């Protein structure tokens, strides 16, 4: 049996930053334990060998492994304990959180902690959720799996490639496969806009003359033993394929980049409330879930576009978890509770509630929009009273947005709701 003040599940960028945040918040390093299922810390960053990481956090451009190594070095310097190749099986909520984990060296581990931070990251949306007709031949991969084969195993999945979905991993793999000598025929996207960052559309598709087919999807896969080609058709505003628009693309590989899903089986198992929009936990201003003492951060909470934002959010979660552990009060915060809600194109907000007693002097609200906008403004209302408007030239679902609230603007107001909405400029 192991006893710790704080257990962090996941040793990727979120888990490592959360551990450093907990030390910053006053917890002794030896009171923290990171549990990571992979062979080393760093999570998905270890296979992301492209650059573009760290511009906000380290003020320089790094590759994924370089970014992870910076945090891993800090973990080692602080002497924060961690266990690798350790799979967490369940979390049981109570006065003390019971974590059941296992690895090949120690067998079943029974770990008790006052607080838990969920930092398990996300996973790709499987093909089965996409309802593509056709057989199930070899040559169909998720974009992340293809990235692992190319970058970690040195294996090229195929030579003629079509990519379905324009998420960032798919865009990056279009460039990566091209650089390795494959021919990327097209990237098809069901929506009328791309799900990736604009810089990735330019650097990974336009710079290599790879066509991006918006409002298109794969309607058939040819081949029984191995993919021989796919049929792509245009779709209408209801995402229904339009007859007569079908076009056949010969290929031996189909990569799927159709979105990411927070990895929340453990969260569901311990009864944490899950947002139907993000697929991640509903959290308050402390990044605490509906279960007291269980916090969440990073892509397990909501899928981020930049790892720098993951690290910043996780640092905050670590500090808040340390406050919880070191607090002598178990009766809850009391105080005025405000609901944060998104309207008119704002799909969700993180956090969903703010307690005035626990709010810091500034509070960052992160959100995503549900479609593309141009020439608009983000308006923040306290009930029906306008607090602030921020002009925006463009907004897209692939890029996370934020507003910062000041505590002094909320104190003394008889309000129950903060509304974040998109309006015409």
Summarize the SSE layout with pairings:
Layout lengths: L1 E8 L3 H12 L7 E4 L15 E3 L8 E2 H15 L3 E2 L3 E6 L4 E7 L3 E12 L3 E3 L15 E3 H11 L6 E5 L3 H12 L3 E7 L8 H8 L6 E3 L1 E7 L6 E6 L12 E4 L2 E4 L3 E3 L2 H5 L24 E3 L10 H20 L10 E7 L2 E5 L2 E3 L6 E8 L3 E10 L2 E11 L5 E6 H4 L6 E8 L1
Parallel strand pairs: 1-2, 1-8, 2-5, 8-19, 10-17, 11-12, 11-17, 12-13, 20-27
Antiparallel strand pairs: 3-4, 6-7, 7-8, 9-18, 14-15, 15-16, 20-22, 21-23, 23-26, 24-25, 24-27
List keywords for this structure.
single chain, 425 residues, alpha/beta, FAD/NAD(P)-binding domain, 3 domains, 7-stranded mixed sheet, 5-stranded parallel sheet, 8 helices, 27 strands
Please tell me about this protein's structure.
The structure is a single chain. The protein folds into three domains: 1-123 and 259-332, FAD/NAD(P)-binding domain; 126-258, FAD/NAD(P)-binding domain (3-Layer(bba) Sandwich); 333-425, Immunoglobulin-like (Sandwich). Helix content is 20%, strand content 35%. The chain has helices at 13-24, 64-78, 143-153, 168-179, 198-205, 265-269, 307-326, 407-410; strands spanning 2-9, 32-35, 51-53, 62-63, 82-83, 87-92, 97-103, 107-118, 122-124, 140-142, 160-164, 183-189, 212-214, 216-222, 229-234, 247-250, 253-256, 260-262, 294-296, 337-343, 346-350, 353-355, 362-369, 373-382, 385-395, 401-406, 417-424. Strands 1, 2, 5, 6, 7, 8 and 19 form a seven-stranded mixed β-sheet that branches. A five-stranded parallel β-sheet has the order 10-17-11-12-13. Strands 22-20-27-24-25 form a five-stranded mixed β-sheet, with no helix packed on it. The model has no long low-confidence stretch (mean pLDDT 94).
């Amino acid at each position: 049996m192991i006893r710790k003040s704080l257990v962090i599940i996941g040793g990727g960028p979120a888990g490592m930053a959360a551990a450093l945040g907990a030390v910053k918040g006053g917890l002794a390093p030896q009171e923290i334990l990171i549990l990571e299922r992979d062979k080393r810390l760093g999570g998905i960053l270890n296979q992301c060998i492209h650059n573009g990481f760290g511009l906000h956090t380290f003020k320089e451009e790094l590759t994924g492994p370089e970014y992870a190594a910076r945090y891993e070095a800090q973990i080692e310097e602080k002497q924060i304990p961690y266990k690798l190749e350790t799979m967490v099986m369940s979390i049981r909520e109570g006065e003390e959180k019971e974590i059941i984990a296992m690895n090949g060296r120690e067998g079943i581990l029974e770990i008790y902690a006052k607080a838990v931070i969920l930092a398990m990251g996300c996973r790709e949306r499987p093909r089965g959720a996409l309802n593509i007709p056709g057989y199930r031949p070899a040559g169909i991969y998720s974009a992340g799996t293809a990235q692992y084969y190319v970058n970690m195993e040195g294996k090229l999945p195929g030579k003629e490639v079509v990519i379905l979905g324009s998420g960032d991993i798919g865009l990056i793999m279009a460039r990566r496969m091209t650089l390795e000598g494959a021919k990327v025929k097209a990237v098809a996207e069901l929506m009328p806009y791309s799900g990736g960052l604009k810089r990735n559309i330019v650097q990974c598709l336009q710079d290599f003359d790879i066509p991006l087919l918006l409002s298109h999807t794969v309607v058939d896969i040819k081949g029984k033993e191995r993919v021989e080609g796919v049929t792509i058709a245009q779709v209408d505003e209801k995402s229904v394929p339009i007859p007569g628009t079908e076009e056949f693309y010969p290929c031996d590989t189909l990569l799927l980049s159709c979105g990411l899903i927070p990895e929340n089986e453990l969260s569901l198992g311990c009864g944490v409330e899950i947002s139907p929009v993000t697929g991640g936990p509903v959290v308050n201003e402390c990044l605490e879930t509906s279960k007291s003492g269980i916090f969440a951060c990073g892509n397990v909470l909501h899928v981020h576009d930049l790892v720098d934002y993951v690290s910043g959010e996780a640092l905050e979660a670590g500090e808040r978890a340390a406050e919880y552990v070191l607090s002598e009060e178990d009766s809850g915060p009391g105080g005025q509770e405000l609901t944060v809600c998104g309207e008119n194109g704002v799909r969700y907000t993180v956090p969903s509630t703010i307690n005035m007693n626990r709010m810091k002097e500034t509070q960052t609200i992160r959100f995503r929009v549900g479609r593309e906008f141009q020439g608009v403004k983000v308006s923040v209302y306290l009930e029906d009273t306008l607090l602030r408007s921020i002009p925006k030239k463009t907004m897209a679902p692939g890029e996370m947005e934020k507003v910062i609230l000041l505590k002094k603007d909320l104190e003394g107001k008889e309000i129950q709701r903060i509304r974040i909405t998109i309006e015409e400029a």
